[in-house]
Specification:
Layout: H1 10-25, H2 29-36, H3 41-46, H4 53-62, H5 65-74, H6 77-86, H7 89-98, H8 101-110, H9 113-120, H10 125-135, H11 142-145, E1 152-153, H12 159-170, E2 180-184, E3 190-195, H13 196-201, H14 208-211, E4 220-221, H15 226-236, E5 240-244, E6 250-255, H16 256-273
Parallel strand pairs: 1-2, 4-5
Antiparallel strand pairs: 2-3, 5-6
Helix pairs in contact: 4-6, 8-10, 15-16
């Protein structure tokens, strides 16, 4: 048996497949759990198709919660469907609750109706409304891939109050980014942006309005195409961008993780055109 293997590579995992299968057969779940903790979620997801469906389910159940989420997000659609169809209600509730809304929306869009109903039945009413609103946006637009769970700041907050506000909210929900934050007025109209680093470095009593920067050149309209968004991210080397409606109301954010596939497609196309 392989023991104490930290950061196992994908090649190492492939060598472990027969052993993992045998451990499942012999129900040596404690030992298997010990091996699984040393495998990176991406590598584990890539190797998932080497196991039959029942083995996949057993492996998934043995993973720690945060790792299970990371693995699930990288699985093929067919494997995700199998997990949702065969996992008990309570684990599914925990799984989808901790997934970012944009990831949930992407998942719901590609699920067959029977699986979609089961998944949505596990979502809290508040989150369900947000998911359904996002599903109303046309596929391939900024609105379809944006995350509507984000932390916004008031221009009247001090730097200290802003940091406390971020800390209090981030304790209870997983946000797609805690790198930069957008400033809105009482009507949620976008006014500017500020990074966490800038808030920490600023005098504690300075107003957010005094240290925020303009975001006019990086804001994205909710109806913009994914390709337009990708080009904007690539041009300005963005990590996150605000999404606004036609009235400049902040409705969501897009991170580089949300748009990276489109950026890569554009880059590949440009390479072939050279």
């Amino acid at each position: 048996m392989v023991k104490n293997n930290k950061n196992l590579s994908f090649q190492s995992i492939m060598l472990l497949v027969p052993e993992i299968k045998q451990m499942i057969k012999e129900k040596k779940f404690f030992e298997l759990k010990d091996i699984l903790k040393d495998i990176h979620p991406i590598d584990l997801a890539e190797g998932f198709n080497n196991f039959d469906k029942d083995e996949q389910l057993i492996i998934f159940r043995l993973l720690k919660f945060n790792k299970a989420i990371a693995v699930f997000e990288d699985l093929d659609t067919e494997e995700q469907i199998w997990i949702i169809e065969n996992l008990e209600q309570n684990p599914i509730e925990k799984l989808v609750e901790d997934m970012p809304v944009d990831e949930r929306v992407k998942l719901v869009r590609k699920l067959p109706e029977r699986v979609k109903k089961k998944l949505l039945s596990c979502v809290k009413k508040e989150d369900l409304n947000i998911i359904q609103q996002t599903l109303n946006y046309k596929e391939g637009t900024a609105g379809a891939i944006m995350n509507t769970f984000f932390i916004s700041l008031s221009p009247q907050m001090t730097a200290k109050q802003a940091i406390e506000h971020i800390h209090s909210l981030s304790k209870f929900r997983r946000y797609s980014s805690l790198h930069a934050f957008y400033v809105v007025d009482s009507n949620r109209k976008l006014l500017g942006g500020v990074t966490l680093r800038k808030l920490i470095a600023a005098p504690s009593d300075i107003k957010v309005s005094e240290i925020m920067s303009s975001v006019n050149f990086i804001k994205v309209n909710v109806n913009s195409s994914e390709e337009e968004v990708a080009r904007l991210f690539a041009k300005y080397d963005l990590v996150i961008a605000p999404v606004v409606d036609d009235n400049d109301i902040l409705v969501g954010v897009i991170t580089v993780d949300d748009i990276i596939d489109v950026i890569n497609q554009i880059t590949t196309k440009q390479i072939y055109e050279v």
